[in-house]
Amino acid sequence: MYQAIVFLPLLGFLIAAAIAIVGARAQHPGGYPEPGAEDHAHGPVDESRHGAPSPHGDHAAVHVSHDEHDHHAAEPAAWGSRPAEVVTTTLLFVSMALSWIAFARVGFGGLEVREAIAPFIFSGELKVDWALRVDTLTAVMLVVVTTVSALVHLYSIGYMVDDPGRPRFFAYLSLFTFAMLMLVTADNLVQLFFGWEGVGLASYLLIGFWYKKPSANAAAIKAFVVNRVGDFGFLLGIFAVFVVTAAVDFDTIFAQAPALAGKPIPFLSWEVDALTVICLLLFMGAMGKSAQFLLHTWLPDAMEGPTPVSALIHAATMVTAGVFMVARLSPLFELAPTALAVVTFVGATTALFAATVGLVQNDIKRIVAYSTCSQLGYMFVAMGVGAYSVGMYHLFTHAFFKALLFLGSGSVIVAMHHEQDIRMMGGLSRKIPFTYAMMLVGTLALTGFPLTAGYFSKDAIIEAAFASDHAGHNPMAFYGFVCTVAAAALTSFYSWRLVFKTFHGQPHDRHHYDHAHESPLPMLIPLGVLAAGSILAGLPFYDAFAGNSVAAFFRGSLSVTGILEEMHHVPAMIAYLPTVMMVAGFAVAWVFYIKSPGIPRALARTFKPVYLFLLNKWYFDELYDRIFVRPAMWLGRALWKGGDGRLIDGLGPDGVSARVLDVTRNVVRLQTGYLYHYAFAMLIGVAALATWFILGGLR
């Protein structure tokens, strides 16, 4: 059963990929056309090119029609599109059903499974088996990944209906799912790294799915390159683990971990604590994969991919990999308090930073994307203060309402004929009431409305941060507490801003509004299921993730600390504080966008530098462009023109050939074809010989 959960998506990928290849050959029997031969590109279903943002933000927009991007009707669907959809979606639903069975057996039935697949690497001291490790931590991730992926597959049947590359799209989705499942079931660091790189590759393919669109290509490359920075640290961390333990399997590493506490290791000519440097290097990988502060810049640009891809990346795969990795290696992190302080600081900073940027964004998908970045920061705060199960609890609940918000946004985009700018929307609650209701549920869960899933998990993180500070366990705990409380208010504000500007008020684009319509049934069913999960994933699982049953539920699959007990004794004021922040954010958003909609424009004018600072995402893209991109481009150009062109080619092959050509040209010039030239040359030769003989005779 456990092998089926992992390998059914791989089977779906292989079948869909075969269909895509055959279909592509059928469409181009004479070979593929030359680049640029087609007059139009494969237009995106949901992407748009917006004009430059106005300094007046919410009330001034430069609008570009999206009809020009809607080219799918001009191209026939690829051969085998329907079989690819049906096969991959069916296999994912089977995998999802098996995952829930595994969750019940492993999580609540006390079962723990390790299935060996095949020997992998045997080289000296390094011995690696390919094996599936299914404990409670894995079972939680199996449920999250397969459930969201199955619903995204179903949703995509309706969403991608006009796209000619559907077989390829569904193949990539299944590959993405398989890579994530391989990651979460890994029994050793090497296998985990294969899954880690697999999700990176699949994300590159999906973000750049519309490969004829330059912005999609740029976003895919950006995601791939930024993640390589984090992966470099992650790989160094794996090497360091092997150096100090001579093993890469988790059981051996965890058994040796207590003996490594306080043990020094040489690093950059210094002697540093082994576990501290190992955990920091591993966390560097998590920062890239989970889009944490400083390595976050790829995540908003990932919106260039189709909306179902955004839902899968943000809710179940890719970005959750870093959180899972820290939880899996929690026995190591728990012995490195300095590393935990860094995790807390980075997570808290990310939570607040992303929330501030989300305040002024106008693209509906980017607003939800920054909420993902912020919520991931919450999860790392939980990990940093030692509440690992609470961090996994928020990952579990977040998957449902974040997938709901992204897929709901896709439904809005379809209704508005591919418009994404919320300034061009308004009044849609009357046109798409079901989507509106589902977006309300997702927003309530994201903001932490009482009894929703987000209420239980997010509040538990804030309480854990306060308890950790009160107990003196983590020097950055108070910073984490303050940032998460502030982010709760900001999250509520920008979430309700999205709802009010999209679904309330008067329409700002009458043409699109008049033709707005509900999405097809395959898109609405996943919304309903995810809405139910956004409510039911909270209270029923609270005791297992954050209550008195945590130790019995996880059974050593992650570290359980005393913070879980202390967080239940925080003052009532602290427990109610997140709800107060949620209400405050809602109230301010209601005043700004319902009661007095002129206030945001006035504030944008009055505080224009602050507004532009947030609108331009703290200028991180510009900063990185100045510090890294331009120098790298200059260096590359210098090495290309100077090193390769002038030095290597100039002195090497090109230089030698040029000299030969010069000599040849000079010799050729002697062969003029005129008789008197040859006679004159003969005369000179005879004179030279005569002179030589005369002078020789005189001697």
From TrEMBL:
Basic and acidic residues bias (residue ranges): 37-67
A Pfam family recorded for this sequence: NADH5_C
Domain NADH dehydrogenase subunit 5 C-terminal: 494-686
InterPro entries hit by this protein: NADH_DH_su5_C, NADHpl_OxRdtase_5_subgr, ND/Mrp_TM, NU5C-like, Proton_antipo_N
UniProt topology in membrane: Multi-pass membrane protein
Transmembrane segments: 136-157, 192-211, 232-255, 267-288, 309-327, 339-360, 367-389, 395-415, 436-456, 476-500, 521-542, 573-593, 675-695
EC number, UniProt record: 7.1.1.2
Subcellular location: Endomembrane system; Membrane
Residue intervals of the NADH:quinone oxidoreductase/Mrp antiporter transmembrane domain: 186-470
Annotated ranges, domain NADH-Ubiquinone oxidoreductase (complex I) chain 5 N-terminal: 122-170
UniProtKB keywords: Electron transport, Membrane, NAD, Respiratory chain, Translocase, Transmembrane, Transmembrane helix, Transport, Ubiquinone
A GO cellular-component term linked to this record: endomembrane system
Keyword Nucleus: no
Domain of life: Bacteria
EC main group: translocase
One Gene Ontology term of the molecular function aspect: NADH dehydrogenase (ubiquinone) activity
PANTHER family: NADH-UBIQUINONE OXIDOREDUCTASE CHAIN 5
Stated name of the protein: NADH-ubiquinone oxidoreductase chain 5
